[in-house]
Amino acid sequence: MATVYVSIVWLLFSSAIVSSAERANAADLKPSYDFIIVGSGSAGSVIANRLSEVPQWEVLLVEVGHRPSFINNLPIAAPALQLTDYTWKYRMEQTPGVCLGMQDQRCPWPRGRGLGGTTLINYMIYTRGHRADYDRWAAQGNPGWSYRDVLPYFLKSEEANLRLQDAGYHQRGGPLSVEDVRFRTIFADAFVGAGKTLGYPYVDYNGREQHGFSYVQANTRKGSRDSAYTAFIRAAESRPNLHIFPETRATKLLLAPGSPEVYGVELVLNRAYHRVNASKEVILCAGAFNSPQLLMLSGIGPSGHLTQLGIPVVKDLPGVGGNMYDHITFLRMIFNFNDSVGEVWPWRPLTNPVPLIEWLKWGQGPFTSIGGVEALGYLKTNVSMEEEIPDMELIMISGRWDAITTEIALNVFGINEAISKTIRPALVDRHFMIILPMHLKPKSIGHLELKSKNPYDWPLLFGNHLSDAENHDVKAFIKAVRFLQRLIQTPEFTKYGARLYDVPLPGCTHIQYDTDAYWECAIRHVSTTLHHQVGTCKMGMDAMAVVDSELKVHGVKGLRVADTSVIPFALNAHTNAPAYMIGEKTSDVINCESVNTNTNFRTMKLLIFGLIQICLLWNWGAALPHESVETLLKEYTEGIDILHKVVREIKYQEASEEYAKAADEEVTEEPHEYDFIIIGAGTSGSVVASRLSEVPEWKVLVLEAGAAENKVAQIPALSQAMQHTDYTWGYTLQPQEHACLGMKGAQCSAVQGKALGGTSAVSSMLYTRGNQLDFDRWADDDHLQTWCYDHVLPWFKKSEDATLKQFDNKYHSQGGPLDVQESPYVGPLRESFLDGAKELGSPIIDYNGKHQLGFGPVQSTTLHGKRRSTGEAFLKPSSHRENLQVIPGAHATQILIGEHTHEAVGVKYVTRSDGKPHVAKAKKEVILAAGVYNSPKLLKLSGVGPTDELAKHGIPVKVDLPGVGENLIDHLTYIGLNYIANETSLSEHLVDQQEALKSWVSEGKGPLASPQHVEALGFIKTAASKEGKDIPDIQVTFSTETFTPEAGEALGLTNHLTEETYKAGFKPLEGHYVYSIQPTLLHAQSKRGTVSLKSKNPFHWPLITGHHLTDADDHDIVTLLHGVRKGLALGASKGLQAHGGHLMEVPSPGCGAHDFGSDDYWKCSIRHLAVVTPQGGTCKMGPAKDKLAVVDTHLKVHGVGKLRVADSSVVPLPISGHYQATAIMIGEKASDLIKESWK
Predict the structure, then answer these.
(1) Which one is catalytic: 532, 644, 918, 1218?
(2) What is the rounded distance in angstroms from the CA atom of residue 58 to the CA atom of residue 71?
């Protein structure tokens, strides 16, 4: 049986050295691409994934190795993989005084080759480095590479599943898994405990502090290797614009004659040469050896060396191949134990099938160990000249090897036979621990050269280890040896009889054992690389620099290098994590630069008011107060790429099919358990998450389908642009007959946010609570009295930190997390508009105070001129709490409801990072806060809703609730009253885009600080009103802006306008300073709308049906007509007319049969140009006797235990205002209701 099992294991293993049958076909190779990426390692895989997210970019990824195989997934096999064809099998040239105990006195230098690069063969250790490393990197003339700059890129990749982590330094939702190793021995516990005994705390070494000891963090996913291939390439390789060619060797860069400009790459595929052009860039990601090799083969490098080999010099760059830093380790710190340890590692793993079965079936057991590595320690020796930075890493490995495994390990390190004989007794059939001291800050520097101009000849690699003049590197190692001798004497190890294996090393037996001289001899014999070479294409501005801070090769156009070769010195990190970060940052740099040339970005150019003119602005950056404006501007340009990702249903549904399959898959992993699960980190959900996690004993999970807010989202004036990005769901209403006639397909947009902060991350930020009588009507039913205005006012005030000129303590408060301010920007027309309102008899009021009828300056949720979403105000300040976990990119597909109990027990969801289903269990409650469209949709998908509809889609009915998705309440706003101001009279007040950006970045002021350009609001009661005495039926919004073509195009896209509608009604405004007066219908009489399922596919859009302007007596359109007339009166007021403004009098398409300005014309235009703003009602609050009620007064779903809805969908009737403030109040009150229930 054992022989059969060994044969099976070897068969699996041998698959790693067999070339893939899926060979690339040269016929599929196009003559030209936008980008060519050479090398699919950590950085290259990221860049291929990120650039191919832009569908119009054609991307070619070439890799000399082949596809990964089954055995690459097995973490324990890491050492053996370095003997396969997945490595280059390089060896360092002989160097005096180092590698003396290796075969031929040459250390192996394996580098990965295959889709995934070195991530296919490495030990999967995930370490980012010390923050001071990156600050030093930036200080060497490389702006944008400080720790503050690069941390977001580490987080962008990460899907962290760690038991102990520092808040704010890890993230969920990225494609790359970082997790605790699932197999851990008593030796790891002893190592960490011994560190504490010697004064070294337990740390998250990727968090706040690196000094200390910790269990290792690894790039594994559920116990299997998560390589660059599995994390980044596999998810992207089905994209039609990404062409991947494995087993394809790049032999030369193609350069334009007489000009140092790269236009393509020469490739060898299936033994034939091919030339492929790159219309935009070539990006070298071939690693610290092969990137400089390819540069030099192409004539870019040290001129003397190239000339010597007969290679024509294109660009003399002396640093190519130079400046090579490396981390080396001493191999001979081996420790054995007495028999008291028991069976820690399984006996003879290669002849024991149990570990393989555990790994294959459950992702558990010793085969999940990353080559035996279990823990790390960081210390600073007294040799180090670095301030407060560790200079030594301790890598703790344990095992119990048989003879075969031992021989594999000895061959991996290339140890000669004489020394191998002395080592085998410490390893074979014995529990052992090896602690590898790795020197983090070497003084010795190596280099590489070409052997010839033949691209198939290996480069000559000179490590020059342990060669520094002061012998600093050797001394640091000796200090580490002495530390380990102390470590092993701690009680944590002595209880197991731990002892250093002290057989003298051949070659050093002539020196007295355990003297410093003996250890120096041993170190020079059996120290070797840990494959962390960097610096051979150094970033910087000095004579040895090869690339600049944007990774462009100095003096060569169309070429970047993006891999660890650009790192200028040795980091306190295993280089895999920094390589991923480099890939992420490079992708964003390229995306950002392409904004100006890519026509799909044209819509956003002037909307971002000069952000694309960053280079011009950097000249004055240093003179501004606060932080460096250069740094701030870079942060905001990082957000530009999100603005081009327009959302349309066809794109969404094309991606949905794959995820729909995942939603139907059975979840095999053990679900995590929480006290509360909140679905949706939107306007209400963020509040609930923050408030419930105030109770430290409660474990809270938040699932959010969208991402964290982009920096650009913080610019208030850009809110309309944000509404046409991936920060929204991109929903549209079903076609209508009587409204939305000027929109494509007679379908109005239905904006709902998809981000941390939900709609509050994309809305206009207007803070209006509604009329007091709205809430009193809400509470008219005896069962709902706790929702009258006097009862809910304290929860409005609880959130609020108001900074207003008119401030009434009865209605406002300070000290809450949500800032409510008047806009810091006051345009030249605001006071004229308010004077016009007074001229027409309306008072100037605080419309969130005692009275609502009147006009006033806009109140918005902003702080220092930046958007203050609930994600920023509530979630972000709570993110450090250990009991709060937020997973962005998590699409909830079903609420799990017990068959017999009819209680919510958990949530099924699919994460964007892996496209796989997961389950989370809720011990106390599930809180649904997914918004007016998605909350009813998810209830129905979970079997809670109208029986007929659920049966139609084959969804088992859990509870029949006819009101789910009914009673959709929204507001209609007419956008056709636009005036062109006399710019001559306003010239002294107007600022250009560059000045606007400067003002906003440095002071949080200027036009960019205006919330969607809105400056004032008014509430009026028209003659058509059917509302009570003091309840308005029309809201009037006043906004101003310089109407650029791009701003107009964004308005058209966001509102789904037809081209004809835009050309007629809005194109004439382009280039002018425009003010708009927009009436909004607050209390429609038309039949309420509905939200229904398109199918049982949770990734299909819901069907949103409106019945706007269909009431029998035309009340709604007549009311809006009164609103238009009020707007015209305001436009004709003395204050505004003093600026010579005139109404844009171009008839709306479809309304030409009516005289412009007549009632019939305005009614027609309203039917064409009224846009929809969703409000609430689709999970209506009401008593059980109300057949349309979905939740009760405590927000509990009727008929379902442990399930609440807490968002604006519960609001039963229209509110005289924007629903953001009401949604926040609902979140506050819901939190207190929940706390009261479980106190």
Answers:
(1) 532
(2) 32
Using a 10 angstrom Cβ sphere, with 0-12 exposed, 13-18 middle and 19 or more buried, the burial of residue 586 is: buried
CA 4 to chain centre: 47
CA distance linking residue 506 with residue 473, whole number of Å: 22
Cβ atoms 796, 772 nearer than 8 A: no
- For 499, 603, 641, 865, 1045, the CA distances from 1051, given in Å and listed in that order, are 74, 10, 19, 22, 10
pLDDT tens for each residue of 402-451: 888 899 999 999 999 999 999 999 999 899 999 999 999 999 999 999 99
DSSP secondary structure letter of residue 446? B
Q: Are strands 884-888 and 1090-1092 parallel, antiparallel or unpaired?
A: unpaired
Rounded to the nearest angstrom, the gap between the alpha carbon of residue 89 and the centroid of all alpha carbons in its chain is 36
Question: Does the structure show a pLDDT above 60 at 652?
Answer: no
Q: What is the 3-state secondary structure (H, E, C) of 870-894?
A: HHHHHHHHHCCCCCEEEEECEEEEE
Question: By 3-state DSSP, what share of the chain in percent is helix, strand and coil, each rounded to 5?
Answer: 35, 20, 45
- pLDDT tens digits, one per residue of 438-460: 999 999 999 999 999 999 999 99
Beta strands 862-863 and 460-462 are unpaired
Least trusted range by pLDDT, from 24-33, 436-445, 939-948? 24-33
Q: How far apart are CA 194 and CA 493, in angstroms?
A: 7
Strands 158-161 and 176-180 turn out to be parallel
How far, rounded to the nearest angstrom, does the alpha carbon of residue 1214 sit from its chain's CA centroid?
A: 36
CA-wise closest residue to 804 among 862, 717, 719: 862
Average pLDDT, the chain: 88
> Sorting pLDDT into bands at 50, 70 and 90, what band is 664?
low
CA 454 vs. chain centroid, Å, equals: 42
d(C-alpha 1038, C-alpha 812), whole Å: 24
Whether 672 sits among the annotated catalytic residues: the reply is no
In this structure, the number of other CB atoms found within 10 A of the CB of residue 92 comes to 25
Burial of 598 (0-12, 13-18, 19+ CB in 10 A): middle
Tokens of 228: 């660059």
Chain centroid offset of residue 781 CA: 45
Q: Is 98 exposed, middle or buried (0-12, 13-18, 19+ CB in 10 A)?
A: buried
Confidence (pLDDT) at 1028? 77
> Quick one: DSSP state of residue 1023?
T
Contacts of 644 (CB under 8 A, 6+ apart): 54, 595, 598, 600, 601, 603, 604
The helix-helix angle for 516-525 and 472-487 (nearest 10°) equals 110
